[in-house]
Write a structure and sequence with these properties.
Layout lengths: L28 H21 L3 E7 L6 E9 L4 E2 L6 E2 L4 H14 L18 E2 L2 E2 L5 H6 L7 H6 L3 H4 L6 H9 L17 H14 L3 H13 L21 E3 L33 E3 L15 E2 L1 H12 L6 H7 L3 E2 L10 E2 L4 E4 L5 E8 L5 E6 L5 E6 L6 H16 L3
Antiparallel strand pairs: 1-2, 1-15, 2-3, 4-9, 5-6, 7-8, 10-11, 11-12, 12-13, 13-14, 14-15
Helix pairs in contact: 1-11, 2-7, 6-7
Length: 411
């Protein structure tokens, strides 16, 4: 592949004309330095780890809202990466679903500490699992003790499930046949997308509408997230979007739709060069995401993801005392997320190098899109988009370093 195709393209967007309604960033020296620092951190992902394209939107503080992008969105055409492009946001979808459940709790229609059995009678039974012992809070907090159906699906050859439709109850059934993860409800944190499939079924039972309808009318439409939608069985992404890529080397293993993981169990690439070097890239843009459902299927943009997390953590979607419930967190497994991470109700909390913690969520889809939205303690926020997933510990550290850079530069 020619060097011109993967050459970096720096875009410091004069955001007044950007998609998503961003505002013009300040020309103050510290703002230029912050942009330069974020550009450098995105370059690290491209140059050290072989990610074709990376983009970010940063908002808040004296610098306003601004966007940067590096690299290539489409390796066939050479089109540059853009922070206005749509992508699959994977498990960042979980926060949207959690926010709807918490809204229903605030309305008195759902009890966070009520058993799931109250809303989905008889659904979680057998093989050591019992919905009478699992609460709604435990679903959202990943402490239900339920396994993750994605693990079973991902063990199959990609061709068997990449374009297949899955029903939510089918996904639950897959999970309940899996070996018990040896943790009792409320005792330990165990990441499982099945929890959010169940949360969506609960929403449907309580409201009479599917999670797609409720997220759209309660969040997407009120916030004007015009680039965010549920794709259903559509395997293509509507409108302007980045392609996404994975390599032959990881085609059999990169199938976790929720992989905000630190990849600590994988080989540390050290100085061995970009991840996937020597392996042919495959285009993973087209995919049926019904296997992720309410826990992983949304399509969005960095601008929309940023607006959503700013609204949620700014108290515009749930009342303050219910947002506090969402922030009641437990320690997450550092092998599944990263050191210092805690998990609330659809929210991840992580220490910042400059002090305090950011709140948000990340997401990965098997074809190679990676997203993350985060809000820092001073209200500054960042949303990231990659079109290939770093598959090594250094790559993951550099991905998280973008968040630290964006939220700490100039503080």
């Amino acid at each position: 592949m020619s060097a011109s195709v993967v050459a970096a393209l720096a875009v410091a967007v004069p955001s007044a004309g950007a998609r998503g309604g961003a505002t013009v960033a300040s020309a103050a020296p510290e703002c230029g330095a912050a942009r330069a620092a974020v550009v450098a951190s995105l370059d690290a992902l491209r140059e050290r780890h072989g990610v074709p394209g990376a983009a970010a939107e940063v908002a808040g503080g004296r610098c306003g809202t601004w966007q940067v992008a590096r690299g290539t969105a489409d390796l066939d055409t050479g089109r540059p990466m853009s922070a206005g492009d749509r992508l699959r946001i994977g498990s960042a979808s979980k926060t949207f679903t959690a926010a709807v459940v918490v809204q229903l709790a605030a309305e008195g229609r759902v009890g966070l500490d009520a058993p799931v059995e109250r809303y989905l009678p008889g659904l979680i039974r057998g093989n050591g699992y019992d919905g009478r012992r699992i609460t709604v809070r435990q679903l959202l907090q990943q402490t239900s003790g339920l396994p993750d159906h994605v693990d079973t699906i991902a063990a199959e050859p990609l061709a068997k499930w990449r374009y297949r439709h899955f029903e939510p109850r089918e996904l639950v059934g897959i999970a309940l046949k899996m070996p018990h993860p040896r943790t009792s409800p409320g005792r330990e944190w165990h990441y499982s997308t099945t929890n959010y499939v169940l949360a969506a079924l609960l929403v449907e039972r309580v409201t009479g509408h599917g999670i797609e309808t409720e997220v759209t009318r309660r969040i997407i439409e009120p916030l004007g997230l015009r680039d965010t939608y549920w794709p259903g069985d559509e395997t293509r992404i509507r409108g302007p979007h980045s392609r996404s890529y994975f390599t032959e080397a990881d085609a059999e293993t990169e199938a976790d739709s929720d992989a905000e993981t630190d990849r600590d169990a994988e080989v540390d690439a050290g100085d061995a060069g970009p991840a996937g070097a020597g392996s042919a890239r495959l285009d993973g843009t087209e995919w049926n995401l019904t296997f992720g459902g309410a826990g992983g299927a949304l399509v969005s943009t960095p601008a929309d993801v940023d607006r959503f997390y700013r609204a949620l953590l700014g108290g515009k979607l749930v009342p303050a005392r219910w947002l506090a419930q969402m922030k009641r967190s437990v320690p997450a497994d550092p092998d599944r997320l990263w050191p210092g991470a805690r998990y609330g109700l659809g929210l991840i909390s992580t220490p910042l190098e400059c002090g305090g913690r950011w709140w948000g969520h990340g997401g990965t889809v098997p074809g190679g899109h990676r997203a993350l939205g985060a809000v820092g303690p001073d209200g500054r926020s960042v949303a990231l988009a990659l079109n290939q997933v770093p598959l090594t510990k250094p790559g993951e550290r550099d991905f998280r370093a973008v968040v630290n850079t964006a939220l700490c530069a100039g503080r």
